[in-house]
Amino acid sequence: MKWNIDVQPIFFPIKIRKIYDNIYKKNRLDFGNWIGKMSINHKQNIDWWLTKPTLRNPYTSNLLNYCSVLETLKKLKINKIEIITSSEEMGSIIFEHFNKKFDLQVNINNNKIPFFRGITGILKSLVFQIFIFSYIRFFIKRKKIDLSKNYVLIDTFITPNTKLNNGFYPNLKKIIKDDTFFVPTFTHTLNFPRLIAALKNDKNNLLYKEHYLSLFDYIYGYFHFFRRKKFLKKKYIYKKFNISKIVCAEINDFSNSNSTIIGVLNYRFFKRLGVLNFKIRKSINWFENQVIDRGWNLGYRKYFKKYEKNSFGYQNFTRHYNLISFSPSVPESVSKITPNKIIVISKYFKKIAQEFNKNQLVVLGPTNRFENFILKKIKNSKKEKILLVLSGILQIDKALIRIVKETCNLNKKIIIYLKDHPILPLDNIIKKNLLPKNLIQTNENLVTLLQKCLITIISGPTSVIKESQNMNNIILLPNIEVGTEINAKRLKLNKKNYFIVNSKKEILETINLVKNKKFKFNKTKNEIIFFENVNDKNIKVFL
Predict the structure, then answer these.
(1) CATH fold label, 380-515
(2) What spatial distance separates the first Cα and last Cα of the chain, rounded to whole Å?
(3) What is the pTM of this model?
(4) What whole-number distance in Å separates Cα of residue 164 and Cα of residue 374?
(5) What is the edge-to-edge ordering of all strands in the sheet holding 453-458?
(6) Which of 398-402, 448-452, 520-524 has the highest mean pLDDT?
(7) 85-100 CB burial, b ≥16 within 10 A, e <16
């Protein structure tokens, strides 16, 4: 049996997939608890909480996957197995623990990012940060602050995409006062002209971190990569498996270097405001529990202890089973790297936000991004197109394209349109000339596409799943990762109108079933109010 442990579970051997899925589901909690034990001596150490192993995010870290692989191998009852992995460290651990149990072969596909590329990433980050710091300092006047006032700071982003910049929060201009500032983080790009144009176009009341940070703060930020080396000296044991090699490899990782720097700078920003005797009565973080969020929340809660109960994390997105870190754990809450209160946009997300910490405070807030309506004007009989929508997560999108490519090659007569994600263009995933002729990229507006589509093929952490239901589309969910069925239940999809498919053959069979009108679409009779749309009451959470 051959098992590539670095691909998505849909490509695992069937016998392995069943065991792996059950172990993975259990490890979602166990792994977080283990991180908590490893963090006992680093409770408010910002350097520790910015390392990759602590993030609990399976899209940025392989640790949860690898720990589940080790336990799967422990339970697996076969004689011979060939393991394929890109991690020399993981290959070594597998051979060490299982070379006596199996007739074992470990093949290393070494796709490691070369060390110099990691250094290049840091240098690009340095150039970017110097440019932003210099531009803000020299061309934008620092705001006058009344230190007798209590202020509200709202975490936001400025990207080269102006439309995206306006979509993070509902329109707050009518309710906020001059005591509320938006604090922007600039997304990493070397397209400086577009970024500056987007900045000039931003009409929010902005307070720039760069006006308060010093050059020493930036030096301190980049020295994180030296300070974190102290975490390499410890031994890391997970359920009797010595996984020190893969943990240390991730601690040493440079792939997210600019975000890591921003995490440190966010932390130092609040320290600077504290020294200047600012009064910040409320903090609202765009909360994904990433490194930049951890710096923001720990900085605010540490240096503004008087107001730390007014630390909020806004989640203006749907909740996906594998975005584990979006639900704070007990150790994270205790360490104050997460907000005191989480703002969710649906009552159905409350329990999800408390999955790993039953005492997590959760409040309902408004969304401007999603609607509750089910579109009734367009009948399914008038819809024809099949649309593949990518998620913006590289691993998921690679798997989606692979399985849909294979489907298109099985039947050259079907035509499937492909819509990529704004944050991950198709060219960054696959060369267009490698796509079959009947898999066609489209740049048409997504809402317009969904209105025309009969079938939407989609997987991963994307709100388009819910939007497809609202457009009365039949949804094909390739079972790419663990938790596909759970995601459908979380989003309250009509179980009669979606299919979970496990192979190219099943995708093709389902398309033929629908196209040949052997499947009857079931209209949702009792529409639920799923999202909290903006009203005069819930908008006050931002005041």
Answers:
(1) Rossmann fold (3.40.50)
(2) 59
(3) 0.93
(4) 24
(5) 439-441, 416-419, 385-389, 453-458, 474-478, 498-501
(6) 398-402
(7) bebebbbebbeebbee
